[in-house]
Design brief:
Elements (H helix, E strand, L loop, with lengths): L7 H12 L15 E4 L10 E7 L2 E6 L8 E6 L3 E3 L7 E5 L5 E8 L5 E4 L5 E4 L4 E2 L10 H5 L6 H20 L4 H5 L6 H11 L5 E4 L7 H15 L7 E5 L4 H10 L11 E5 L7 H6 L2 E4 L11 H14 L4 E5 L8 H11 L9 H20 L8 H12 L3 H14 L8 H18 L5 E2 L13 E9 L4 H16 L6 H12 L7 H7 L5 H19 L2 H14 L4 E6 L3 H15 L3 E3 L14 H7 L6 E4 L13 E6 L6 H9 L10 E8 L3 H13 L11 H18 L1 H11 L5 H16 L8 H10 L1 H15 L3 E4 L13 E4 L2 E2 L2 E2 L5 H8 L20 E2 L2 H4 L2 H5 L3 E2 L5 H12 L5 E8 L11 E11 L12 H18 L3 E8 L4 E2 L4 H4 L10 E5 L2 H6 L2 H5 L5 H18 L1 H29 L4 H26 L2 E13 L7
Helix pairs in contact: 1-29, 3-27, 3-28, 5-6, 11-12, 11-14, 11-26, 12-13, 13-14, 14-38, 15-18, 16-24, 17-18, 19-20, 23-25, 24-25, 33-39, 38-39
Pfam families: Helicase_C (PF00271)
Protein name: ATP-dependent helicase HepA
InterPro entries: Helicase_ATP-bd, Helicase_C-like, P-loop_NTPase, SNF2-like_sf
C-alpha cells in the first residue's frame, strides 16, 4: 500500500472527521436487535453485527452473511460492544412476510427507525430489528442469494464480471508479481525474469549482477515494491544502502517509479554507506535489505569500510530477504568478491578460505572457455574441446559420461541440426554451467546478449585547437620530470598526482604544494614547480578552449532534437564554460547543480529541467559531481568532453550517465584536443583506441584500469610522452591487455549469466498492456456506472477509444448525502490507501484518488512522473480496494431476468424455458507447506513464493456453464441466452430484471413448476455445473498443461542439483542436500494444488426465456 502508514487509525480518524464524521453512537447498552460493532480483535474487522443479548457481562453478536445462509454468532465482553448508526448508502436486507428478501439502501440511519430506499421508488421507515447488514467478510458463495430470490439486475453482474476478469488476466500475466504491473516502468523480459526468479524462490537471498546500465535498480525497485504489497501495513520495514552519490537517485526512483514516497523514512530507509551506523535499529527490524554497489563495502581499504562490513555482516545473515547489487566481475577482485558472496551464503563462501575460492575461480577458466565453444555451429572443433575437459577433469565421472556420449555422436558426423547432437551438447553444457557456477542465486545479464537494451556508444570525434601557453607548460612539465627522476625514490601517491596533471592539464592542484606535502625540499624542483603552476594558471585562463567549445556546440545544436552534456573535471571550468555558452545560446544552457539538504525537493533542479523541457533547455554543463548519481539518458544525447579525466573509470562514469537502460540514440562523444599538448593527444588516443571507452563500456575492467595506471605512472616518469603511446599500444588490438581481459571475464561471466528463457511471461504482460482499452471500459463501467464514482478527467473526456486522459475517481456527495453507492465509513475503511489527501478538491466532502492513466506509456513520460500520474493496474491501492469491495459486497453476485423474444419458440408448458448460468473461477488450491527451522518471516516468504509459482503455472481460469431447467448441461448456449442485458425494447426483444415485485408477479404456471422447490432446483443445477466445469476439456487441458510444465521444471532442477552435488563436499554438500529435500517437498505441495484446483462460484444467475411479457400493466 502506498499511503503513509505510521499508524493507520489516526489516518482513518483524521480523514473520517474531514469527510463526514463518525458513525459510532454514544456508549450505551444496546437493545436486542440493534446494530453494533465489536472493538476487540479479531471481530473489529468483521464489521456490523446484530446484538443478540448478554449474560454475566458476555455479549452475543450475530453476523449476517447472505439471505439463506446461516448467521455466525460470537461472544465478547459487553465492554467491547459499541452501538452504531447505519451510515447513508449502507446496503440492507429485509425479509418480507412472504419469506422473500428485499434489498435496499439506507438514506437516513440516525432516527429511531431507519429510512430505507427500496427498488422501483419504494421507501419506508423500518425498525433495526427487521433489517440485516452483511458483515465485512468475503461472500464465498452467492447461491443463497439466488435461492432466496435476493437477486440484482444483470447489469451489475456483467459489470462486476468484466472487472474481475480483467483483474484476473492481469494477475495471470504478472505471475502474481503485481508490483511489476503497477510500477511506472517499462519492464523488459530479462528484468522480469530476474524479478520472477527472486520472488518465486522461498529463499530470497540474491546477488543481482547485471552489467552496468542494464537496470538493476529497476529489478530491485520492483522487488521492494512487492515486499510492501505482500506484508501487512505497519509491519514492513526495508533498508536500502547506497553510495552517497546515489542516495538522492534511489529516493527519486522509489517515489516516482515505484510509488513508495509515502513510506520513505518511516518504513523504507535509504541510507548512505557512510551513515549506516545511524540506522542500527532499522537494520535490526528490517524484513528486506538492499545493498547497492555491494563491492564498495568489501574493499577494506579503510578502517571505516572494515567497520561498515562487519556491521553489515552481523545483520545480513539474520534479515530474511537480501539483495546485493554489484556489476563487478569476480576476476577483478577475488578477495572482495568473496566478502560479497559471504553475505549471500556464509556456508558456501567462508571468509577464511580465500585460497579455496581462488582455486574455484582458476578451475572455472577451462570450463568457461569450453562452454563458450559449446554451440552447434562449432561442430568440427568440438573434439579438441572434449579432449581439454578429459585432460583437466578426468576424475569427474558424471562429466566424463556426458563427454563420452557427445563424442560418440560426433564420431557419426551429424549435421548441426541433428536432434541427438543438439540434445547431447545442451546436456553437457547444462552440467558444466551448474557444476561450476559460483552460486545458483547469482543472477547476471550481460550487455553483449542484450545490445538492444541500452543506447550504443558511437565513438569519439576530436575537435582540435591550439592554446598559446600549452607549449611553455609542457616544457616545464618535462623539465620537472627529468629533475625528479634524479632524486631519491618518489612516493607512489606523488607519482599518481603528477601523472594526473600530465593527463589532465585542467587540474588546479598546485604542483609545488604536492611536492611540499610529500616532503620534497629540493630547491630546484620547487622552483620549477612554481613556474609550472604559473604557466598552468595562464593556460587555463585562456579563451581558446572556450571558443572551441562554443563553435562545436553551434554545429551540434543545428541538429534537431539534439541535447548536449558538457563534461568538465573542474567546477571553475564548468562555471566559466556555462557563462561563455550562455552568452551565445542564452537560456538553452544550464549549469548542473547539486541540491543542498535544506532545499525544497519539489523545486526542479537545472538538470531535471534539461530532461523535462528538451525543446527549451538543450545544453547541460557539468563538473565532476555529475559523474555519479545523475541519470541523463534518453533521446538524442551527445557528450562533449571539455577535458579528459586522468582515469578511464571516470570517462566510464561520464558516459554511464547517458547510455543506461532505455531508449535513446547512439551516444557520440566529442573531445576538445589541444594540439600544443602532445600528452593530451596521447591520452585521448589511449582512452579511444586502447581502452575503447567511447565505443563500449569498460565497467568490468575497473581493476585492470587501476593496475595499468600504476604501471603507467612508473613508465611516464622514466620515458615521458612515449610511455603514454606505448601504453595505448599495449592495451589495444586483439592480443592487447584489454581484449585478453575481456575474453577471460566474458568466459567466466558466461558460467553465471542467465541463459535463454523459453517463457512467454513477458508476452502476456505485453498483451495485458495492449488491452488497456478493454481494461478501461471494464473499470469505468464497474466503478463509474455501477458504483456511481465520478470519473474526473484532468482535461477533456477522451474523445475516442485511443485517447487516454489522466483522471481521478471522486467519491460523490450531493446535499450532504452520498451519491456513490458505498457508505462513507465503508469507503474510508476499504479505499483509504487510494485517497490522495493532497489532491485539490472543489468539494470538501468528496475525497479524490490519485491521478491515473490506463495506457502505460502515458505514465512513463517525465511530465507524468513529475506530476505523480500512475498507471492503473493490479497492485495499485485503487484496484486493490475495488477487489476488496468485490469480495465483501454481494452486488453483482446473483441475478435473475425474464427475457422476452416474441419470435422465440417456448418448449416448456409453463410458458418459459429456464436456464441457469454459473460463472466459475478455477485456480490453484490453497498451498499447504511448511519447512522446519523457519520463523514467521520465513514462512511468509515461503507461502508467497509458492502461491506465485502455482499461479504462474495455473493461471485463474473462467468457465461459464449453462444448465437448463431439467438439469442438463447446455454445451452450446444460444445467442439469445448469451445476449447482453437490455432493459428496453429492441425489435422483438426486451429484458426484465426480476426485482422482488416481479418475482412475486411471475405467472402462476412458473410458480407451480419452476419455483415449486426452487432452493433444491438451484442446488442441483449448481452441483451439475460444478462437476461439468471440472470435467470439461478446457479445465482438464489447463491442469494437464500446468502439471507438464511443473514436471519439466522438476526434471531440470534435479539435473542441475545432481550436477552441483557431483563436485560439492562437506558443509556445502550438506546444505545442497537439505535444499534439494526442501525443494522436493515444496514441489509436491505445488503439484497437489495444481492437480486438485479450487473452484469458486463467482456469479449465479437465471434466465427465463419467453415469448410474452407478463409484467405489462
Amino acid at each position: 500500500m502506498l499511503f503513509r502508514r505510521v499508524s493507520e487509525k489516526p489516518d482513518i480518524e483524521r480523514i473520517r472527521v474531514y469527510f463526514g464524521g463518525s458513525a459510532v453512537m454514544p456508549a450505551a447498552r444496546p437493545e436486542v436487535g440493534a446494530f453494533v460493532q465489536i472493538t476487540a480483535v479479531p471481530y473489529s474487522a468483521w464489521g456490523i453485527g446484530k446484538f443478540a443479548g448478554a449474560t454475566n457481562g458476555i455479549a452475543r453478536v450475530q453476523y449476517f452473511d447472505a439471505p439463506g445462509a446461516e448467521p455466525q454468532v460470537v461472544e465478547s465482553s459487553l465492554t467491547n460492544i459499541k452501538p452504531i448508526c447505519l451510515p447513508t448508502q449502507t446496503r440492507v436486507f429485509r425479509r418480507q412476510s412472504t419469506g422473500r428478501w428485499q434489498v435496499g439502501r439506507v438514506t437516513d440511519g440516525n432516527g429511531a427507525a431507519i429510512f430505507v430506499q427500496f427498488p422501483n421508488g419504494e421507501s419506508a421507515n423500518v425498525e433495526a430489528a427487521d433489517l440485516q447488514v452483511r458483515w465485512n467478510r468475503p461472500l464465498r458463495d452467492p447461491l443463497p442469494l439466488l435461492t432466496s430470490e435476493a437477486t440484482e439486475t444483470p447489469f451489475l453482474a456483467d459489470a462486476r464480471s468484466a472487472f474481475t476478469r480483467q483483474v484476473a488476466l492481469q494477475y495471470s500475466a504478472a505471475s502474481g508479481i503485481t508490483a511489476a504491473l503497477s510500477s511506472s516502468i517499462e519492464l523488459v523480459d530479462y528484468q522480469f525474469e530476474v524479478v520472477r526468479r527472486v520472488l518465486t524462490d522461498p529463499v530470497q537471498r540474491y546477488l543481482l549482477a547485471d552489467e552496468v546500465g542494464l537496470g538493476k535498480t529497476i529489478e530491485a525497485g520492483v522487488i521492494i515494491r512487492q515486499f510492501f504489497l505482500d506484508i501487512p501495513p505497519g509491519s514492513s520495514h526495508a533498508v536500502v544502502l547506497a553510495p552517497p552519490a546515489l542516495v538522492a537517485q534511489w529516493r527519486e526512483e522509489l517515489t516516482t517509479r515505484f510509488g513508495l514516497g509515502n513510506d520513505l523514512d518511516d518504513f523504507l530507509h535509504v541510507v548512505s554507506h557512510e551513515d549506516v551506523a545511524d540506522v542500527e535499529d532499522e537494520l535490526a527490524n528490517a524484513g528486506l535489505l538492499v545493498v547497492d554497489e555491494a563491492h564498495h563495502l568489501s574493499r577494506f581499504s579503510s578502517e571505516h569500510e572494515i567497520t561498515l562490513y562487519r556491521r553489515l555482516q552481523a545483520h545480513a545473515h539474520r534479515i530474511p530477504r537480501l539483495l546485493l547489487l554489484s556489476a563487478t566481475p569476480v576476476l577483478s577482485d577475488p578477495e572482495g568478491f568473496l566478502r560479497v558472496l559471504h553475505l549471500l551464503d556464509p556456508v558456501a563462501f567462508p571468509l577464511d578460505d580465500l585460497d579455496g575460492f581462488n582455486r574455484r575461480i582458476a578451475t572455472r577458466q577451462v570450463v568457461a572457455e569450453v562452454v563458450a565453444m559449446l554451440t552447434p555451429e562449432n561442430l568440427w572443433s568440438l573434439t579438441g574441446e572434449l579432449d581439454r575437459l578429459q585432460e583437466a577433469y578426468g576424475e569427474d565421472i558424471t562429466l566424463m559420461e556426458k563427454v563420452d556420449a557427445l563424442r560418440a555422436i560426433l564420431n557419426a558426423f551429424p549435421d548441426e541440426e541433428d536432434e541427438a547432437y543438439v540434445n547431447a551438447l545442451a546436456d553437457l553444457k547444462t552440467h558444466l554451467v551448474e557444476s561450476y557456477r559460483l552460486h545458483r542465486r547469482i543472477l547476471r545479464n550481460r550487455r553483449k546478449s542484450l545490445q538492444w537494451a541500452t543506447p550504443r556508444r558511437a565513438g569519439l570525434k576530436r575537435v582540435p585547437f591550439r592554446s598559446a601557453g600549452a607549449e611553455r607548460w609542457r616544457r616545464q612539465l618535462e623539465e620537472l620530470r627529468l629533475h625528479l627522476n634524479g632524486l631519491d625514490t618518489l612516493p607512489a601517491t606523488l607519482r599518481a598526482a603528477v601523472l594526473g596533471h600530465v593527463l589532465n592539464s585542467r587540474d588546479r592542484t598546485s604542483v609545488r604544494k604536492l611536492l611540499e606535502q610529500h616532503n620534497i625540499r629540493d630547491d630546484e624542483a620547487l622552483e620549477i614547480a612554481d613556474a609550472l603552476d604559473g604557466s598552468a594558471e595562464r593556460m587555463r585562463d585562456g579563451q581558446e578552449r572556450l571558443d572551441t567549445l562554443t563553435a562545436t556546440l553551434e554545429g551540434i545544436l543545428a541538429t534537431p532534437n539534439a541535447q548536449v552534456v558538457v563534461f568538465c573535471s573542474d567546477r571553475t571550468d564548468a562555471d566559466r564554460a556555462a557563462q561563455h555558452l550562455q552568452r551565445s545560446f542564452g537560456a538553452q544552457v544550464v549549469r548542473h547543480e547539486v541540491r543542498a539538504n535544506c532545499e525544497d525537493e519539489d523545486t526542479p533542479l537545472p538538470w531535471q529541467k534539461f530532461l523535462s523541457t528538451t525543446d527549451k533547455v538543450r545544453v547541460l554543463v557539468c563538473d565532476a559531481r555529475a559523474e555519479e548519481g545523475v541519470n541523463l539518458h534518453g533521446g538524442k544525447k551527445i557528450a562533449v568532453h571539455f577535458d579528459m579525466p586522468g582515469s578511464p573509470n571516470r570517462c566510464e562514469q561520464r558516459l554511464g550517465r547517458l547510455d543506461r537502460f532505455g531508449k535513446g540514440d547512439p551516444i557520440v562523444s566529442y573531445a576538445l584536443h589541444d594540439e600544443s599538448n602532445p600528452d593530451e593527444g596521447a591520452w585521448i588516443d589511449t582512452l579511444d583506441t586502447g581502452w575503447q571507452v567511447f565505443n563500449r563500456s569498460v565497467a568490468s575492467l575497473q581493476y585492470l584500469i587501476e593496475s595499468a595506471l600504476q604501471t603507467l605512472e612508473e613508465e611516464w616518469f622514466a620515458q615521458g610522452t612515449p610511455a603514454i603511446r606505448e601504453h595505448a599500444t599495449a592495451l589495444s588490438g586483439p592480443m592487447g591487455l584489454v581484449e585478453r581481459e575481456r575474453k577471460q571475464i566474458d568466459h567466466q561471466d558466461g558460467l553465471d549469466a542467465l541463459g535463454e528463457q523459453e517463457l512467454d511471461a513477458m508476452e502476456q504482460v505485453d498483451e495485458c498492456d495492449q488491452s488497456w482499452r478493454e481494461w478501461r471500459a471494464a473499470l469505468i463501467r464497474f466503478a463509474g456506472e455501477a458504483l456511481k464514482f465520478q470519473v474526473r478527467y484532468d482535461g477533456s473526456r477522451p474523445i475516442n477509444q485511443d485517447s487516454d486522459e489522466a483522471f481521478r475517481l471522486a467519491y460523490v456527495m450531493e446535499h450532504g448525502v452520498p451519491r456513490t453507492l458505498i457508505p462513507m465509513g465503508g469507503y474510508l475503511r476499504t479505499f483509504l490507501q487510494s485517497i490522495d489527501v493532497d489532491a485539490p478538491s472543489d468539494r470538501s466532502r468528496s475525497p479524490l484518488t490519485y491521478r491515473y492513466v490506463f495506457r502505460r506509456q502515458n505514465a512513463l513520460t517525465r511530465a507524468a512522473r513529475s506530476q505523480g500520474v500512475r498507471v492503473l493496474r493490479v497492485g495499485d491501492p485503487l484496484v486493490a480496494s475495488l477487489e476488496a469491495f468485490c469480495e465483501q459486497d454481494d452486488r453483482g453476485r446473483a441475478f435473475a431476468m425474464w427475457r422476452v423474444d416474441r419470435e422465440y419458440e417456448v418448449h416448456d408448458p409453463s410458458g418459459a424455458d429456464l436456464f441457469f448460468r454459473f460463472d466459475f473461477i478455477i485456480r490453484p488450491a490453497a498451498l499447504v507447506a511448511k519447512l522446519d527451522g523457519r520463523g514467521a518471516d520465513g514462512q511468509s516468504i515461503l507461502e508467497q513464493s509458492l502461491t506465485r509459482k502455482s499461479q504462474a503455472l495455473l493461471a485463474p481460469m473462467f468457465l461459464r456453464i449453462w444448465v437448463d431447467g431439467s438439469g442438463a448441461v447446455v454445451s452450446t448456449p444460444s445467442e439469445l441466452m448469451e445476449a447482453s442485458y437490455t432493459d428496453f425494447w429492441q425489435g422483438t426483444r426486451r429484458d426484465f430484471n426480476l426485482n422482488p415485485r416481479r418475482w412475486r408477479d411471475l405467472p402462476s404456471p412458473i410458480q407451480t413448476s419452476w419455483l415449486r422447490d426452487w432452493p433444491a432446483l438451484c442446488a442441483e443445477a449448481r452441483q451439475t455445473a460444478e462437476a461439468a466445469a471440472l470435467q470439461s476439456d478446457a479445465c482438464r487441458a489447463h491442469v494437464r498443461q500446468a502439471l507438464t510444465a511443473l514436471d519439466r521444471e522438476e526434471r531440470l532442477r534435479h539435473a542441475q542439483t545432481e550436477s552441483r552435488l557431483a563436485r560439492l563436499t562437506g558443509a556445502q554438500r550438506r546444505c545442497e542436500l537439505e535444499e534439494r529435500s526442501n525443494d522436493d517437498a515444496l514441489c509436491a505441495a505445488i503439484r497437489n494444488s495444481l492437480a486438485e484446483p479450487d473452484i469458486d462460484l463467482d456469479v449465479a444467475g437465471v434466465v427465463f426465456l419467453a415469448s410474452e411479457d407478463p409484467f405489462e400493466q
